[in-house]
Amino acid sequence: MTLFTRDFGKVSALAKGAKRLKSAFESGFDLLARCRVVFLHKSTTALDLLTESQLLERFHPRAGSLSHLYGGYYVAELLNALTEEDDPHPLLYDAAVAGLEHLGRDESPFLAVTRFELAVLFEIGQLPDFYSCTICHSDIAPGHPGRFWVSQSGLICSNCGRSEYQPSEFHPGSLAVLHQLLQTEAGEPGEIPVSAQQKKEIRRLMTAAISHVLGRRPKTLSLITM
Ligand SMILES: [Zn+2]
């Protein structure tokens, strides 16, 4: 199985006998369950050996919403696809825990999912610069007159914009929300007011940024209604 640990990053480990009724592992190996584990680290390519596990917390997506459940799967997909073994990211672990908690109670998965995407991009050093134009590098601020456009690696200012970018317009209000998300911690309550239009524009931007880094569109993202 693949675990994402706070201290060691991604770990591929063998849990011998985990499916037996009486094993050293509590029945805690559901996807997204948080556990305290003991494992033996093997050198080179061999799988690590899991020897003990204690369930701390299961993932409880907001009742009645498949989107919150898929939001959790999406967190798992990004952790698995964008992190390497033996490369610890304790802050990313904390961001994942906070994101899953929010998916348990927030009305919309939007803030939890978007904050987690920003955290993962930041932690792997792939966060686009959302404060300047990707072409001319001039400052992009919410007070800036006019609109911006979404590119694969960030935003394009109105001077560099072309008519063919029109379908990916990004308004200053969306930029203000995005900057607010970048400046608040993942664990903070999801209380930023976001309009439907801003959600749409920010989701387009984040999907482009994540797909760019993954080299494909994420599998679970299209299942989430924000
Ligand atoms: Zn520009």
Automatic annotation (TrEMBL):
Gene3D superfamilies: Nucleic acid-binding proteins, Recombination protein O, C-terminal domain. Residues 2-58 form the DNA replication/recombination mediator RecO N-terminal domain. One of its GO terms (cellular component) is bacterial nucleoid. GO terms for biological process: DNA recombination; double-strand break repair. InterPro entries: ARFGAP/RecO, DNA_rep/recomb_RecO_N, NA-bd_OB-fold, RecO, RecO_C. Keywords: DNA damage, DNA recombination, DNA repair. Pfam families: RecO_C, RecO_N. Involved in DNA repair and RecF pathway recombination. HAMAP family: RecO. Belongs to the RecO family. This is DNA repair protein RecO. It comes from Planctomicrobium piriforme. The lineage of its organism: Bacteria, Pseudomonadati, Planctomycetota, Planctomycetia, Planctomycetales. The gene is recO.
